[in-house]
Design a protein that fits this description.
about 260 residues; alpha/beta; Rossmann fold; eight-stranded mixed beta sheet; two-stranded parallel sheet; about 35% helix
Length: about 260
């Protein structure tokens, strides 16, 4: 039933990119950067916390936050920035966070930050500019080795290439399932992405995505990158074999310092 719910929401996200349900945290956004860096007092480790951050220009970003059960703000953690698919709505963000990331993140001690696209502007169509500010507002989370990991599915995979092309210094590894560069400028920046491990997954029954992902792999390999591309036979655009998050976090753990 959970899987059917995700597939329904994903389909709605593809056709209604601008729709989203507004979910806010129980506390208003603090007014100063110093206050923004303080540890929130209403967080619940072991679940998907839904929060809202105010950007400098007034844009509101709703995001999910997964913390380990024994989270200690004095410690460093592996941190995943996860970009949702489709219209990148709050509903899709929550669904993927709960079904794909939550269990493995908790069992392996990861923090997950997963934003929804503000006002339907996707994270490879303009909202990517807010990612550094969003991470900065959560600077009370200390990423292991001072760098994040990034992953995304479908439009989230496209977002991965856009965000890493703009901020290569922020990331330690990248994973898409599926995803490829959406713009020539993203492809031109693959030389930076070639400096970190990259994993790509695509369904064998998803022909429109296989060819550009093959091309992306070949380009990364030509640049000396550490990249894998796995075509999963019998799988479509949404790969059920990845839905439990095990293979995703196996790669992420392998890319830790």
């Amino acid at each position: 039933m959970k899987r059917a719910t995700f597939l329904l929401l994903f389909g709605l996200g593809l056709t209604a990119c601008g729709s989203a349900t507004t979910v806010t945290s129980s506390e208003p956004a603090p007014a100063t950067n110093q206050a923004l860096a303080e540890v929130p007092t209403d967080l619940k480790p072991g679940t998907v916390n839904i929060r809202t951050a105010s950007m400098a220009d007034g844009t509101q970003i709703t995001y999910g936050l997964i913390l380990p059960e024994d989270f200690d703000p004095a410690q460093q953690y592996p941190v995943l920035l996860a970009l949702p698919p489709g219209g990148q709505t709050v509903e899709l963000m929550v669904s993927v966070a709960q079904e794909t990331y939550l269990d493995e993140a908790l069992s392996r001690g990861w923090v997950v930050i997963t934003p929804a696209a503000p006002d339907g502007v996707l994270f490879f169509q303009g909202s990517e500019e807010y990612i550094p500010e969003l991470l900065d507002q959560n600077s009370w989370i200390k990423p292991e080795g001072d760098r994040y990991h990034i992953a995304g599915v479908s439009n989230g995979g496209r977002s991965v290439f856009r965000i890493t092309s703009l901020n290569p210094e922020l990331f330690r590894s990248a994973l898409v399932f599926p995803g490829f560069p959406d713009d020539p400028s993203d492809s031109a920046a693959l030389s930076e992405l070639a400096k970190i491990p990259v994993a790509m997954f695509v369904g064998g029954d998803d022909p429109g995505w296989i060819a550009p992902m093959n091309e992306t792999r070949d380009t990364l390999e030509s640049l000396g990158g550490s990249v894998t591309l796995e075509v999963r036979t019998g799988e479509g655009h949404i790969m059920t074999s990845l839905s439990d998050g095990v293979d995703i976090f196996d790669f992420l753990d392998s890319a830790r310092p």
